[in-house]
Every structure is written in C-alpha cells, then in structure tokens.
Amino acid sequence: MTELGVVDNEATEKYLRIASISIALYDYIITLPAEWRFYKSQTSLFRLRLACILFILIRYGSITVMVLSNYGVFSTGFTLETCKHYYMISPIFKVIQTMISQVILGVRTFNIARRNRRVGIALVVLYFVSVSLEWFTNMFNRIPVVVHGNCTPGNSGKVLSAWFYYTVAMFYDLVALIVSTVYLLRYNPLSSKLEQLVRVLIYDGIGYFVVLTGSNIFNIVLYHTSNIQTQAAGASIGFAVIWIMSQRILIHLRGVWSPFSAHPQIPH
User: Which tens digits make up the pLDDT trace of 223-238?
Assistant: First the structure.
C-alpha cells in the first residue's frame, strides 16, 4: 500500500521553500529601516546593547541557516559521498537559530518579570535543559538523503527522532508565555499609555506562540506522515517564522519600551 504523506513529492517541497524564501526576503526589506534605527540608537559600535546584539544574531543567523538548508535542496551536484560531509550543517544551524530565539524570549520574560531572581534561575535551567534536548533529538539518527543530486538530512529514528525537537521548543515557548502573561496581568497601569503597553506585550507574546506553534505542529506532522525524502519540507518555513517573529519582538519592544524606559513600573 502506498504511503500517503502531507508532502509527497519533491516539487511540493521546493514550492514550500520558495514561498518561505520569498516571505523572509520581503520581511527583510521592510524591516531595513528598523535595523538602521537599532544601529543608530547605539552609543558605540563597540558597545552594542543586548537587544541590538540579539537582533543581529537572529537576523543574520537566520539568513545563514536558510541559505545552507535551501542550497542543499536546490543543488543538483551532490553525491551520497559529498552529501555525507554536508547534510549535518543545516540541522546544526537550525538548533543555533532556535537557541538565539529562545534567548530573546527568555530575556523578554525576565524583564517583564521585573528581573525576579527566581524567575531568572528557572528560565536559565529551563533553557539549558531545552537546548540539551534540542541538540540531542535534532541530531539523533540523522542520515544523508540524496535525490536527483540534492542533499537533505533525513531522520530514521523510531523513538527519539527529530520531530521531538519541535515538541521541546513548543514547551519552552509555552512556559515563557505563561510566565510573562501572568506578570503582565499583575501590572496596575497608572495611565492609558501604560495600559496600551501592557496590552501590546501580551498580544506580542500570544502572537509569537501561536505562529511558532503552528509552524512546529506542521513540521511534526511532516515528520510523521511524509516519506524520508520530504521530511524536511517544512524546515525552511520554520526558519522564516522563527526569524520574523523573533526579530519583531525586538523591534516592537524597542518601539514601545523607549517612551517608558524611565517609568518605575516598567522593567528595563
């Protein structure tokens, strides 16, 4: 009996990847002014603020992982031997991108919690546990897959496989969302502007979680239902979504935080 998958041919995978590249390119162009404002607000090129450093890392780290991943798919010159030297590069940068994104979410949550020491310790522990599981599950039982000269990483694990990586990522995002939302709901805004700020932060957190969770669930479905040649079809969409949502958190924080940076109720 023929196995029916969500993505059952190479052409569909390439369409998904072209769509993700187009969306990411469009977002890169429209956020260039925001990038310039980040650089302009720094006191010195040698003393960049944490938000600016994270913005650079997520922006250009995401570009790197998308280029490396899609090069392997759209290339036609790989053999099984050459693919063995390349296929693990994309999964490695995939985890690095997720690590940067989770740092952004963790820093946001820590600041919203008014830099509470216990929250900070809990977030650090959760971060390192999540990262350790993500590295292991994303690398476990990876095999090179060559189809018509391209090179992609497949996963042949039956127990701990790459799809579990997305489950770990969703759990980290959920915990960060719950903690930040609880603290935001505790705020007692003294003005309509502060109330608007709290509302924006809540919606940002929920939006981030919903979009990333949707992308992660899509990838989990692909790993469970597609054949080994098309398991990674949704990876590029995931890269684009993490990139766009993570940098938008930083852009929005910079935009709404600055007018209130000196306010005693607002952590900074």
Answer: 776 566 566 667 888 8
